[in-house]
Amino acid sequence: MDLDTVRTFVAAAEAGQFQEAAAELAVTQQAVSKRIAALERDLGVRLFTRTPRGAELTIDGQAFLPHARELLRAAERAVASVRTGRRPLRVDVIASRGAATGLMRGFHRSHPEIDLDVVMLFDIETAVSALRSGAIDASFRAVAAPGRPLPEDIDFVRVLDEPLQLLTGPGHALASARSVTVAQLVGHRIWMPGIVPGTEWAAYYDDLVAEFGLTIEATGPNFGSDVLIDTVADTPALATFMSEQTRLVWPAGHGLRRIPVTDPTPVYPHSLLWHRDNPHPALPTLRAHLATTGTGHDAPGTWTPDWVLPR
Amino acid sequence: MDLDTVRTFVAAAEAGQFQEAAAELAVTQQAVSKRIAALERDLGVRLFTRTPRGAELTIDGQAFLPHARELLRAAERAVASVRTGRRPLRVDVIASRGAATGLMRGFHRSHPEIDLDVVMLFDIETAVSALRSGAIDASFRAVAAPGRPLPEDIDFVRVLDEPLQLLTGPGHALASARSVTVAQLVGHRIWMPGIVPGTEWAAYYDDLVAEFGLTIEATGPNFGSDVLIDTVADTPALATFMSEQTRLVWPAGHGLRRIPVTDPTPVYPHSLLWHRDNPHPALPTLRAHLATTGTGHDAPGTWTPDWVLPR
DNA sequence: CTACGGATACAACCGCTGGTTGTGACGGGG
DNA sequence: CCCCGTCACAACCAGCGGTTGTATCCGTAG
């Protein structure tokens, strides 16, 4: 099916006749007739009843019309998503089960009129160069990875400290604990597949290991969170970290336990980054929204790596 | 823009390489390459970065991908809307500011998983033949116009009695009344543009006129409810009937009055009609829904034309 | 260092889609 | 009864979009 054909159908339905639709589309009446005939052949139904005074929709045509309009709107939005200048606000969220997507959902709920596109970039370096080139407008990241200072023209604010919880199966040694301290985790195997070396997450867990002597296995291929959770549920010796805010969609009865971690609570520090000179009109709106909804940071009893910038 | 091209883009993005996408789409690698190149030329942005090991999305490509998927889903739904067998439930609602659309919205809210298409047919005869041919699955109508008994194979139930209210401007003689009786309306001009002769609505108002001696001007072109309401608001000598359930989207301060009518209250009797042998799986669900939400009918103090079938 | 494999891009060729022009059929209104 | 406006059909033709063949690039194995 061809979008020009759909456009022709809508034009003909609105005009009530092929001739006028043809004039509007700057083609001949015969072309419109052929396009409609082809569409009817493709769909297998008659869309118009032809009369000597024009063409009016059949019932099938009436049913098809709103879907055709929606199709054209979707095409419009698709093109707009890559249009330079006045395109939707393009935000990079960190590629993990994270809180950034939740923040963006909240923003979309309070500002449904602002068109959004969400992308996931590899690491903060990619994100920063994308911000500077204008390919994206904002990025949720942990600022900044060790030894790599942020460029002058990139601004940021801390928007959310995301506490980690321990996720275990029912057979785990800590499964019945109401909460665990970081010290209690020493010696237990914590499995974090899908952590890619070189990203901020990897640096975060490296620091966590270095500081408290934990055993975190960040290796192994990532088969998706289904496999991860399934494995954790069935393996008493394994646990994993998971955001407090991650909504588990998992059948009940698996006996999965979510256990808060204390003394201190490891939190992942999300910041919003943007280019100082980015002119996108929706960017201030996003910043204002996050300023109101964002929680405090560096609360007592929480831990973040040293290299996280304070502001 | 061509949907095959969009499909190709999505396939290539999922496969991560053109070759595999080509195999999946049963074309050559060169064809995929050309399609992607053409799409990039149309959009004016690069969608993939080509590597010796395949092709991965650029940031623009990432932003475009969900829109492309949505576009394909919309196309899917559009085709499904006219597919014979297992198509969305197709319901005819009466072509006026009516309660039927409200009922359908309610149904959609409680059963969002059921795909719906709404059409508006001219009169009950068209609706009945559409029901018998299977072109539509259900119809909201007033059953039945005088002298035209319903065929044997069409079933129906009364689902809603819709009370009429008087709508006046602030200068109208009855504007300050808390309620008016039908007898008080005698001599006042009531304007109902857009009532097409030969439809059930026309028959309804004809009966109302005949029974109570009202002055209803059902003639004149229909310029839309905006014009109607605007005129009523500014013309002290004019009033109109409007459903109690019609939500007015109108700037405040116009001083419009909605006045209940009593002794008796004219109600418009909506019935759901369907074909006895219609096999659509969602039809029983709709009937069950209407059975629970439907109000009673022929309540004391209400009026409907004689020819309305009771059940 | 070289050869090879697997990936994309470019060039040449060609069938067929989809446009135009010209014409016919049909039905309503003056 | 004729004329006008409408849509459909036929013939023709350009160009889009496919295929085949080939070049190029890069990572890797020998």
From TrEMBL, chains A, B:
<keyword id="KW-0805">Transcription regulation</keyword>
<dbReference type="GO" id="GO:0032993">
    <property type="term" value="C:protein-DNA complex"/>
</dbReference>
<dbReference type="GO" id="GO:0003700">
    <property type="term" value="F:DNA-binding transcription factor activity"/>
</dbReference>
<dbReference type="InterPro" id="IPR000847">
    <property type="entry name" value="LysR_HTH_N"/>
</dbReference>
<dbReference type="Pfam" id="PF00126">
    <property type="entry name" value="HTH_1"/>
</dbReference>
<protein>
    <submittedName>
        <fullName>Putative LysR-family transcriptional regulator</fullName>
    </submittedName>
</protein>
<dbReference type="GO" id="GO:0003677">
    <property type="term" value="F:DNA binding"/>
</dbReference>
<keyword id="KW-0804">Transcription</keyword>
<dbReference type="InterPro" id="IPR036390">
    <property type="entry name" value="WH_DNA-bd_sf"/>
</dbReference>
<dbReference type="InterPro" id="IPR005119">
    <property type="entry name" value="LysR_subst-bd"/>
</dbReference>
<keyword id="KW-0238">DNA-binding</keyword>
<comment type="similarity">
    <text>Belongs to the LysR transcriptional regulatory family.</text>
</comment>
<feature type="domain" description="HTH lysR-type">
    <location>
        <begin position="1"/>
        <end position="58"/>
    </location>
</feature>
<dbReference type="Pfam" id="PF03466">
    <property type="entry name" value="LysR_substrate"/>
</dbReference>
<dbReference type="InterPro" id="IPR036388">
    <property type="entry name" value="WH-like_DNA-bd_sf"/>
</dbReference>
